[in-house]
Write a structure and sequence with these properties.
Radius of gyration: 17 Å
Bound molecules: N-acetylmannosamine-6-phosphate
Number of domains: 1
Number of helices: 9
Helix content: 40-55%
Strand order of the largest sheet: 1-2-3-4-5-6-7-8
Structural class: alpha/beta
CATH superfamily: Aldolase class I
Shape: globular
Strand content: 15-25%
C-alpha cells in the first residue's frame, strides 16, 4: 500500500477552521506529497475526493461526528465506513477503543472493508486495545487516541512508550500518531519502532502553530 515507511500527513479542517473547504486540504496534501510524505490522513468525503484527485498517495479516510449517546466520534457508524469507501479512501480509520461494547459490530465492518480491497487502521489508546485490534484482523494500529480516553496516559508529549510496546509485540505495522510536534519527536517515534508517523496539527493547523509563537512571546514579556 505505502511505497515506504515514513511520514503520513493528516490534512483535516472542520467548519469554523480558517482552512476549511475550498480544496485547501488538497493543497496541503499536495505540499506533503511534494516534500516526501508517504501517505495522507483525511476526514470526510469532500476532502477525500479532492485529495484523491490531487495526489497519488494512499489515503487514510475517516469521518468525525458526534452520535447522540456515544463517545465514539471517529468513523462512528457503518454509514460512515460506506461514505469513506465511496469517496475512494484506501484505508479506513476506525475507533477500536474499549469505550463501548461494539467490537462484534466492528469485526463485520473490518470484513466488509477488506472485501472492498481497502485496509483498516485501528485508532487505539492503550496496548491492550492494540493487541485486540490485531487479533480482530486490522492492517495497521495507530496510537491516535492515547491521551483522549479517560483511562490512557494524559500527556502533552506523544505516547512513545505505547509505540515501543506495540512494535515489540505486534506483527502488523505500527503508526505513531498524536501530539507529534516536531521532526525530532517524529524520529524518536520511528526509532521506538513505528513504521509510520502521522503528523497533523504541527503541519496543517497554522492557527495552532501561530498560537504557540504568540504564547511564547507573551511569556517572554
Ligand atoms: C484525537 C483525535 O481526534 N485525533 C484526530 C484524528 O484523526 C486528529 O484531530 C489529529 O489531528 C490527528 O490524530 C493527528 O494528531 P496531531 O494533530 O496531534 O498531530
Amino acid at each position: 500500500m505505502f511505497k515506504q515507511k515514513g511520514l503520513i500527513v493528516s490534512c483535516q479542517a472542520f467548519e469554523g477552521d480558517p482552512l476549511y473547504g475550498d480544496g485547501v486540504m488538497a493543497k496541503m496534501a499536495k505540499a506533503a506529497e511534494q516534500s516526501g510524505a508517504v501517505g495522507i490522513r483525511a476526514c470526510g468525503a469532500d476532502d477525500i475526493l479532492s485529495i484523491k484527485e490531487t495526489v497519488n498517495l494512499p489515503i487514510i479516510g475517516l469521518t468525525k461526528r458526534n452520535v447522540p449517546g456515544s463517545q465514539i466520534y471517529i468513523t462512528p457508524e457503518l454509514s460512515d465506513v460506506m461514505e469513506i469507501l465511496a469517496a475512494g479512501a484506501h484505508i479506513v480509520a476506525l475507533d477500536m477503543t474499549d469505550r463501548e461494547d461494539r467490537l462484534l459490530q466492528v469485526v463485520k465492518w473490518i470484513d466488509y472493508i477488506h472485501t472492498r480491497n481497502a485496509w483498516v487502521m485501528a485508532d487505539i489508546s492503550t496496548y491492550d486495545e492494540g493487541r485486540k485490534a490485531e487479533q480482530l484482523g486490522v492492517d495497521l494500529i495507530s496510537t491516535t487516541l492515547s491521551g483522549y480516553t479517560p483511562y490512557s496516559p494524559q500527556q502533552v508529549k506523544p505516547d512513545i512508550d505505547l509505540v515501543q510496546r506495540l512494535s515489540e509485540s505486534c506483527a502488523i505495522p505500527i503508526v505513531a500518531e498524536g501530539r507529534i510536534s516536531n521532526p525530532h519527536e517524529a524520529k524518536e517515534a520511528m526509532e521506538a519502532g513505528a513504521d509510520y508517523v502521522v503528523v497533523g496539527s504541527a503541519i496543517t493547523r497554522p492557527q495552532l502553530i501561530v498560537k504557540q509563537f504568540v504564547d511564547q512571546l507573551i511569556t517572554a514579556e
